[in-house]
DNA sequence: TATGAATGAGACTTCATTCAT
DNA sequence: GATGAATGAAGTCTCATTCAT
C-alpha cells in the first residue's frame, strides 16, 4: 500500500473517531471526509460502506482500550485489580461512547471484542476467587461493565460532563455487591 | 371528541409504540400510519410533529409503568419493596426500551419523569433507611436503575429475548451492594 | 334556502375576503372555515372548490366596487369624472388587492367584469371626447387602470401602507398623458 | 469547478428560468430537476434551498436585463433615451415576468436591484431635465416602470402573447404625461 | 344539514453510495 | 489513486377535498 494511502486511511479513521463521538452514528459521511481532508471516493475506496468505517473505528478504539484495561487488571492485589479494571474500562467509555456498543452488540452472538474482554475477566475472577461471593461468572462482570458504561454515558450528557463522582459511587456499590460477604446464592 | 377520532388516536399511539420499539426513533412515520390503518393527514392532525407523537408514546408508557412500580414500592417489607421496585421497573423496561431514555434525557435537566421516579425512590429510601449503607442518595438509586435498564436491553437483543436470569443476577448483586453491611463511605 | 344557510354562506364569503386579503390566494381553506366559524363540510357545500369561493369573493367585491366607480364616473364635469373614476377605482384596489386580478384574468377572453368596466369607460370616453388625444380607446383606459392598480399594490406592501401620494402622482401623470394636448398618433 | 458541474449548474438555472416562467414560484423542484436532466441531489448541491435557486435565476435575469436597459438609456437624445429605456425594460419583462417582482419586493426596503435601477433612472432624469414637467422624481419613474410591467404581463396572458401594440400605446401615453408641457404641480 | 376528522398525493430536503473527471 | 459531483430513494410535513358521524 502506498504511503499516502496509509496516511489517508489513518486520517479517515481519526476523523471518523471525532465525528462519531460528537454526532453519534447518524453523522454524515461527508462530515467525516471533510474532517479527514479527503474526497468521498477516497473514503469509499478504503471503506466500502459507512458501517465498515464505523467498525474499524470501534476496533481501533477497542484495541487501545483493551490494552489499558489489561494493564489495570494486572495490579498485584486482586481486589484492586478488579476496581482498577472497572475504573479504567469506564474512563475509556467516558471518552469514547461507542466502544461499549460493539460489546453490547456481541452479547447474543459473541464478538471478537467480547472474547477479549472475557479473557481479561476470567483472569480477574481466577485471581480474586476467594474474595468474591460464590457463583459469580464472567457474564456477570461483563454485563455489569456494560450496565455501568450506560451510567457513565448518562452522567456525561451535556450539563456537567466532568462529574465522575456519580458513577464512581455506583461502581463502588456494584463491586461491593460482589464481595464474599454476600453468601446468598445468585439466581440460576 | 368524536368516537372514531378517539379510536384513531389510540390506534396511532399503539402503532407508534410497536414501531418505535421495533425500529427505534428513526422509524418512518408512514410505517406508523400504515400500522395504525390511517392516512398521513390523520396522524399529523393528532400529532403536529413526529416528535410530539414520540413524546406521547413515552408519556403514556411512563404513566402505566410508574403506576406499576409505585405499587411494587408499597410492599410491606422495606427491603422487599426495594427489590420489587427494581424488578417491576426493569420488567417494564424490558417491554418498552424507550421508557428509560426519557429519564436518561432528563439527567442533566430533570424531566417530569425523573421527578416522579425521584419521589418513589425517596419513599423507598426513607422506609429502608436502617437497612442501607450510609450515604445512599436518590441519585444513586436513579442512576442504578438507569444502569440496570441498559443491562436489560443488552440481554434482550435478538437471540434469547426471554432470558431474565442474567439481569436478575445483576440486580441482586447491585442491591446487595447497598446493604448496611458495607460501612465504607461512598465517594463524595 | 334556509336562513342559517344564508347566514353561513355570507360568513364564509366575508371570512374568505379577509383571509384572501391577508394571505393571498395560497391561504389555507381551513383558515377561512375557522374565521367563518363553520366546518369544512359547510364550506364545501356552498362552494364545491376553493376556486369557486375565490370567484364569489371577487364577484362580490367587484359588484360593490363597480357601483362606486360608476357613481364616480357620473360627475358632471367630464374630466373630473375621469379622475374621480380612477381615484375611486384605485382606492378600491388598495383595499382589496384581488379585485383587479379578475379583470386581468379576463384580458384575453373578456370576463363579465371586464364588460361592465368597459361600459363605464365607454361612457367616460364619450363624454370626455373633446378633451382626449385622438385615438384613445376603451382598451387603453382598461389597461391603464390595470397598470395603475399594480402601482397601488406595490406602494402598499408592508412598510408604509397608508402612503397614497406615490400612486396619486402616477395617476396624475398618466391621465395628463391622455389630454388632447398630445396630438401625436398612438401606435396602431 | 469541474466542467460538468458548470454545465449542470447552468442547466439547472436555465430549467428553473423556464419552469418559473411557466408555472410561477409554486413550481415543483422535481420539475426543474427533470427539465435540467439532473437528480435532486445535484440541484440541492448547487442551491441548498429552492429559494436560493429562485434568487439566482432572478439575479441572473436582472443582470442581463439591467445591462440592456443601461445601454438603451445611453442613447444620445435624452427623450429617446427615456423611451428606449422603457421599451427595452418592458421587453425584458415581457420575456421574464419574475424580474419585476424582485424590484417590487424591494419597494418598502430598497433591494440591490432597485438601487441599480434607481441609478439608471437618475441619469435619465438628469439628462432629460429640461424636457420633463417639474418635480418628477426617481420614484415616479420607478413606479411607472413597475406599473407598466403589469400592463405587459396582462397583455401577454395566454391568447395573443405577441401583441405589443396594447402596452406600447400605454407607454406612449404615460411618457407624454411626463413632458414639460404639463406645468401643473404633482401631489406632494 | 353541519361538523371536522380523514385522506393521500405531492411538496421540500437529506444523505449513503456511485462514477465521471 | 484521488476527487467531489451526481444520484435518487426515502424522510417529514401540508393541504384541497371527501365522507363518516
Automatic annotation (TrEMBL), chains A, B, C, D:
Q: Which residues form a coiled coil?
A: none
Is Transcription one of the keywords UniProt gives this record? yes
- Please list which residues make up the signal peptide: none
**Which keywords does this Swiss-Prot/TrEMBL entry list?**
DNA-binding, Transcription, Transcription regulation
Looking up InterPro entries in the UniProt record yields: Homeodomain-like_sf, HTH-type_TetR-like_transc_reg, HTH_TetR, Tet_transcr_reg_TetR-rel_C_sf, TetR_SbtR-like_C
Q: Which Pfam families match?
A: TetR_C_43 (PF21597), TetR_N (PF00440)
PROSITE patterns in the record: HTH_TETR_2
Extract the Gene3D superfamilies matched here. Answer: Tetracycline Repressor, domain 2
Q: Which GO terms describe its molecular function?
A: DNA-binding transcription factor activity; transcription cis-regulatory region binding
- Which part of the chain engages DNA, per the record? 28-47
Q: Where is the HTH tetR-type domain?
A: 6-65
Claim: Transcription is one of the keywords in the record:
yes
- The name of this protein is TetR family transcriptional regulator
Which species does this protein come from?
Winogradskya consettensis
Amino acid at each position: 500500500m502506498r504511503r499516502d494511502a496509509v496516511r489517508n486511511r489513518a486520517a479517515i479513521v481519526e476523523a471518523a473517531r471525532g465525528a462519531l463521538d460528537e454526532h453519534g452514528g447518524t453523522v454524515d459521511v461527508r462530515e467525516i471526509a471533510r474532517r479527514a481532508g479527503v474526497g468521498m471516493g477516497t473514503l469509499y475506496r478504503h471503506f466500502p460502506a459507512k458501517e465498515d468505517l464505523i467498525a474499524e473505528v470501534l476496533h481501533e478504539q477497542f484495541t487501545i482500550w483493551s490494552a489499558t484495561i489489561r494493564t489495570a487488571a494486572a495490579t498485584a492485589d486482586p481486589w484492586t485489580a478488579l476496581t482498577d479494571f472497572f475504573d479504567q474500562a469506564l474512563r475509556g467509555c467516558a471518552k469514547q461512547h461507542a466502544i461499549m456498543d460493539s460489546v453490547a452488540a456481541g452479547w447474543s452472538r459473541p464478538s471478537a471484542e467480547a472474547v477479549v474482554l472475557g479473557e481479561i475477566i476470567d483472569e480477574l475472577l481466577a485471581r480474586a476467587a476467594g474474595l468474591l461471593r460464590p457463583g459469580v461468572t464472567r457474564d456477570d462482570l461483563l454485563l455489569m461493565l456494560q450496565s455501568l458504561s450506560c451510567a457513565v454515558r448518562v452522567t456525561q450528557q451535556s450539563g456537567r460532563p466532568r462529574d465522575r463522582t456519580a458513577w464512581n459511587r455506583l461502581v463502588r456499590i456494584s463491586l461491593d455487591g460482589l464481595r464474599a460477604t454476600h453468601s446468598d446464592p445468585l439466581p440460576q
